[in-house]
Amino acid sequence: MKLKDIVNYLIEEGIDVELKGDGSIHIDQVSGLVEAQQNHISFFSDLKRSHELEQTSAGAVLINSKFETLTSRTCLLVENPYFAFAKVSQLLNPEHTAAGIHPSAVIDESAKISTTAWIGENVVIGKGVTIGDDCYIGPGSVVLDHSVIGKKTRLVANVTVMDNCIIGDEAYLDPGCVIGGQGFGFANEQGEWHKIPQIGRVVIGDRVFIGVNANIHRGAINDTVIESNCIIDSLVHIAHNVSIGYGSAIASQVGFAGSTTVGKYCVFAGQAGINGHISIADKSYFAAKSGVTHTIKEAGSYSGFPAIPTAEWQKNMVRSKGLNKMAQKIKYLEKELQELKSNLENN
Question: What are the CA-CA distances from residue 220 to residues 182, 202, 223, 239 (Å)?
């Protein structure tokens, strides 16, 4: 499409944008600055990449006005170039929008399927299921009895939604997700494990992204809850009765034990591990491989195992590099002290 049409789209999306250059050029894809061609649009937001901006062949660049003098390329001036880039990428790479039901799908007659939804190959839909408008239920996906899928939600492929789960509007579930699997609940009697039926649900809000092979267990009695606007990366495990607050971000291989409550806008970097039955304050950030063993009462950055404030952890790590020298010095001082003690006793 023409660049001026992209400008109009951004304005319709509520983004303030100013065109500097030729609005008649044709743009058919987004690209990085290095790879971009004349028919591509890219973005710039990092001064460390100034050399890439100078050399780019992009037909247009999304850029903040404070950097516009760094390039002679056609520019779209926006406050947040990366956000605008995301919107343009969505425009130029639209999701599947067809409606209908593939002949191989198996759907219970009691299910309520919107006429604008797409039900793909080998999908199974259980009793009393509700599928909202403009949903995409991709190949091999399973939605079991009495679950609800909100409008414009996408189950890409081979996604399993167990019974009685609720997923909100505009959610995006990548292949292999399992929503509502059995929580890890067992009672031990004289060395024998006895399963406790997990009768809660998983309730997921609007605009939640869940990555490949992520696993969210249903509640044991109450619900497991993922509030709206959360992003959850691949291979994340969320145990029964966990609650994840609005706008939180969880990177790959993070694991949550049961009944933990996470506040709003929290961030968990890769492979962080979170203990069960604790609470985490809003706007808490946990570095990679953090071990969160106790309740976090104050917002801030935490690192290490057990997780402590990052500034404190960094000091400890610096000191730990000198542990061998410190040990040798202590050994030397102990020897000196022993010799001094012997001399005093002999005198």
Answer: 8, 10, 7, 10
Catalytic residue among 26, 40, 237, 240: 240
Q: How many residues does the chain have?
A: 347
> What's the predicted TM-score (pTM) here?
0.89
Residues 149, 125: contact at Cβ < 8 Å?
A: no
| Of residues 249, 244, 197, the one with CA closest to residue 219 | 197
Adjacency order of strands within the sheet including 29-30: 18-20, 74-77, 60-63, 40-44, 29-30
In angstroms, the CA 140 to CA 124 distance is 7
**pLDDT tens, residue by residue, 37-93:** 999 999 999 999 999 999 999 999 999 999 999 999 999 999 999 999 999 999 999
Which one, of 216, 211, 210, 227, lies nearest residue 255 by Cα? 216
**Closest alpha carbon to 174 in 125, 213, 123:** 213
Backbone angles phi, psi at 191, to 5 degrees: 85, -5
- Is residue 102 part of the annotated active site? The answer reads no
Return the structure tokens found at 21: 């250059």
Write the pLDDT tens digit of every residue in 288-324: 999 999 999 999 999 999 999 999 999 988 888 888 8
